[in-house]
Amino acid sequence: MERGGISLEGLSRVVSNIPAKRRHFARRSNMVIIFITIFATYAADYFSAALTGSIVWEPTFRHIPGRIPVTGILRGVSGTDVTSYFTYPDVQTIIVEIGAASANLAWIALQRDSSNIPEPSSTFRRVVKNTQYLSTNSTLKNVTVPYFVVDAFEWIADPEPFLTTPQRSLFEDYSNFSPYFSGRGAVGLLPDSQWGLQALNKLGDPQIVAESRLLSYRIQRREWPEGPCPRNYSIDPGSQINLHEYPYTGVWYDCFAIANVTYRAGAAVCQDCKLISPTIVQAENPLQIIPDSFTSMALGLAPSLSTYLIFSGIAVPQNYGTRRNYVIELTSRAYQAAWAAYSDTFGSREGDTAVQIAVPTLRAKVIPWRVFLWVGLHFSMIALGLLFVYIQSHCDHPWVDDPMLAVFWLDTSAVSHGSNIHSTDPQKSEAGLPRDEILILEDAGQPSRFVMSVKMKSG
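Predicted structure:
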């Protein structure tokens, strides 16, 4: 009101937080000042809402040390001849059932999409006894896990020249070592007299198997009228192969894809392995492969395990993408299941290991950009406050700390009395001054001031 004045209607709009219009002021600069003031008020009132959530709470775990007895923390028995457990069909059936059950438990979907992982993976899992009362995300200081990694994989375009006579007999000889026992197998490394450097019938000291070997994968079964297996079969993008066929008693053809696989198999000691469920421990590469007594036995039984896993449909890979990835991942899981079954049945019984028990808790998480925005806005408010103090100290009128008290410092008698002055209420503009009059703040000698109304100048 000192700088040209404001109409009563304009004053009513301003105190109601509504932007005034040009006609309410005698000077255009006054309108700009009022607009800046109103928007600054909005910023001061509402910027805190934009900062909500600078600190959020997220679930986490606090680990408490402990010690428990755990089965299978050590390797298999060294130097002990346990081949009878491998060659007897009844015992072999028991091991297959134990391995299939543990694999289904280890690779079941523990949470949404947990088994839907990229393949081929470098993840190793096993079921560990005596940990059923530990919470998820607890860690075991020392536990042995199966180890199987494929270093190279290539589909063979024409497998006939590569298959030996003993290997061909595996497709019709459903013996203990055949990957297609009972004629229902799916995936398996083709065995011969030995795995690696150690014969199957002479299990002795722990070993690591690192070799290249043929692997067979049943693609389809065709009824006899359909004819033989197709040639130039597209098994993967960019890979066309001839399928090896085996005519079964004149009823159907079994069609197999053959691949050359370079792999390493053994075991690994995992330090601080995490429990992804109360009984399942998971290890991730890189791990150091170590020799183990059950390596060759697990390799021999893996084809049978892969068949059982396919029957159950629980532990099979989900989003394999290509058949190459599917075969690698399924072979790895079958080996892990066979190794875990042998280890739990014939390996070291129990040992103590340190554990870190996970206790659910909450952890504060700070969102940095919101904090920086909060600090910046507050510094801006401090700077504007200091600027306000500086400007007020150089003004002629006294500074009022509380704007609500300003009304007590104003002499409004000129508004209420006088022939040409009307009684007004800024909150009720409809009963106030005409639109061609404005309110002006005038000095009456320090410290008195009064408000008077004058005709608005034209233009």
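Summary: Residues 73-82, 414-431 have pLDDT under 50 and may be disordered.
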